[in-house]
Please model this.
Amino acid sequence: MSNERYKKTPDASIHKFDFHSDSRGSLFVQELSNFPVNFVRLFVLEGTETGSIRGQHAHKECWLFVYASGSGITLNISNTSGSNVFVLDSSMGVLIPPYNWTEVHFKEKGSRLNVLASHPYDPSDYIYESP
Model:
């Protein structure tokens, strides 16, 4: 797989949330100040049907941090070095640097993916060809 639009980039990485529980319930925490970027935008993707696929693009500048509200979401992420598959649950998120092609697969109806983005929406930041 090779595409001249793609630059060498770090791979996407899993970040386990800190977990705290007591008689009131559970709390999952991710300290965002530990990331190499600041996030300025939040959006939510919801799979209305089993088998829905979203994403199918990469970014030139924008970093993403994605996490699921529950289960039923698989991420297929690839770059010029190879590809990885991440099966998400509510205890983790995935940090996705620029130049990582991302496909979001909704395995269960109503699955929800939360996305933090480091940049405002900019159509010129998108790459629609896989590496």
